[in-house]
């Protein structure tokens, strides 16, 4: 019967045919999206492993929609990687950096917007325009070298986000100075894990987790209703964790000098650049873990607080305590955490000090 009705409409006037066509488009989309299940008591676990963005990722979802959701995740992670990869000539970021970008994609628009906001909020610690300095240190090619002071001073003049001309109406970007380049490496993983949570929700998955090389985001609770136990990695990457966090529905993102580094003449140089010096940040911290509802923010802030060091981080948190909590591992082997994590952070390895917002 229904089929007949549709056929009848197609036989109608041009106007009717257009109407039927317009009605069918959303129907087709609705069918191809993951259908949400009404009864999700199923706790079947599905997991995929991916290698993207220079990291191993493990994505786990529960319930009867898990497999479908994970297929979508695989496609989405690939898509984001191709968009943001600085080294890939077809990527949007590559085109931006070579002055050949058209109107920005929705993803890049959002990342640029968030990055420029973070630049302001963090008093310049989060700076996507440090990319030419990353290149000079060889972090982009793995041909590591210590640049001379003159080179650093010259490249610092290009690390000026105020010279990124972002036309929000036309979705366009240009640089005011020749040689400027940007890179979303400081927030891309958090953005990706946040997107994965969105896909889970669209697909009717209510419980799931992603681990992107030590950066974790969780959806809901475990299927038995208990919280997730997420380990904070130790700088030596040994079996003993720096700490464990019990959370639900949160991103837990860590930045550390031990993630990517090289050694020259007995000195260790890592990949988080202090935009004030053009050198690897030395702020008395071994790692920073951010806990937040917002994965993109958590990633941006883990990089930023690592550069700020303990005192500035605490001050910053006092102003933004509704948006995130933190755990700092200091050079003298102590954990300093915001008081919102009392009851969820434990450590067998380090002494923990909680700071209050007073
Ligand atoms: P990881 O990628 O190891 O998890 P981060 O989230 O801290 O660690 O990101 C480090 C990356 O961020 C660097 O590889 C580089 O691409 C970029 N980056 C380095 N310094 C800065 C900075 N001051 N502001 C923004 N991004 C930065
Ligand atoms: Mg980060």
Structural commentary:
- The N and C termini lie far apart (69 Å).
- The chain has helices at 2-10, 14-32, 66-84, 92-97, 106-121, 131-136, 149-156, 188-202, 295-308, 310-319, and strands at residues 45-52, 55-62, 164-167, 172-175, 208-212, 215-219, 228-232, 243-247, 251-256, 261-264, 267-270, 273-274, 279-280, 285-292, 325-330, 334-338, 345-346, 351-355.
- It is an alpha+beta fold and 358 residues long.
- 34% of the residues lie in helices and 25% in strands.
- It contains ten helices and 18 strands.
- The strands form five sheets. Strands 1-2-5-6-9-14-15-16-18 form a nine-stranded mixed beta sheet. A three-stranded antiparallel beta sheet has the order 7-8-17, with no helix packed on it. The protein has a two-stranded antiparallel ribbon with strand order 3-4.
- The protein is globular.
- Residues 1-13 and 26-32 have low confidence and may be disordered.
- The structure holds adenosine-5'-diphosphate (ADP) and magnesium ion.
- Adenosine-5'-diphosphate (ADP) binds next to α9.
- Magnesium ion binds next to α9.
